[in-house]
Specification:
There is one protein chain. By secondary structure, this protein is an alpha/beta fold. It has 2 domains: 126 residues, Oxidized Rhodanese, domain 1 (3-Layer(aba) Sandwich); 81 residues, Immunoglobulin-like. It has 6 helices and 14 strands. Strands 3-9-8-5-6 form a 5-stranded mixed beta sheet, with no helix packed on it. α1 packs across α2.
């Protein structure tokens, strides 16, 4: 059984690595703001109309306001209401791809939430993720909190919470040219972590799209 599983993994690796090479010419989309300690900081310009912001699905976004703007940030279609001025440290999580209207006082515009696409990045189902774990001694990276990790983790995984990842990249620098398999609870924080890795030169990053929730649902084992 293990030999069959390893053969399937080898085929999967070939297809993934081949598609990376084929996609090398794809230009990544321009996104707003920058990621700091796992949070994307995005600026809304005062009372300017027709602003166009772009983030990735799974981003945790902290909105900064420049110029004259007051009131509540509202993204009605996503059920988000948030006051950046009263709580500047707070952030919102954007999980649904699409284009959504927002308002903040007199400021208004749209926020486009994109699925992350990059030549060095792929998403995997739990079965694909498990198969890849058997090939080439990849780094399996858990980017959840220590408490979540203690409750149950994928065997052999290394814990670096997403908010600490940028500061601890030197610890995993040996894997820049090797597969890094990333997971979190639901596939959102791991998307953010994947972007951080790729921006820092990691070339083969695979995200468990459904997170540990999908892993358990597929009856794959957890280590406790």
């Amino acid at each position: 059984m293990r030999r069959t599983f390893k053969s399937a993994a080898a085929v999967l690796l070939f297809l993934l690595w081949s598609s990376w090479s084929a996609a090398a010419g794809d230009a990544p989309p321009a996104v707003s703001g920058r990621v700091v300690d796992g949070i994307r900081e995005v600026e809304i310009a005062g009372a300017a109309p027709d602003q166009r912001l772009t983030v990735y699905r799974g981003d945790y976004v902290r909105f900064r306001v420049s110029g004259e703007a007051a009131g509540e940030l509202a993204i009605p279609e996503l059920g988000i209401r948030h006051s950046p001025a009263s709580d500047p440290a707070a952030y919102v999580k954007l999980e649904t791809p699409g284009v959504f209207a927002f308002t903040l006082g007199a400021a208004r515009g749209t926020i486009t939430v994109l699925d992350y696409r990059e030549a060095a990045y792929r998403e995997a189902t739990p079965a694909e993720f498990a198969a890849l774990m058997l090939e080439g001694e990849p780094l399996v990276l858990d980017v959840r909190t220590p408490a979540e990790y203690a409750r149950g983790r994928i065997r052999g995984s290394v814990l670096i919470p997403v908010q600490h990842l940028q500061a601890r990249l030197a610890e995993i620098a040996a894997f820049k040219d090797r597969p890094v398999l990333v997971y979190c609870a639901s596939g959102n924080r791991s998307t953010v972590a994947s972007k951080i890795l790729i921006d820092n030169g990691f070339r083969r990053v695979v995200n468990l799209r459904t997170g540990i929730v999908g892993w358990e649902r597929g009856n794959f084992p957890l280590e406790r």
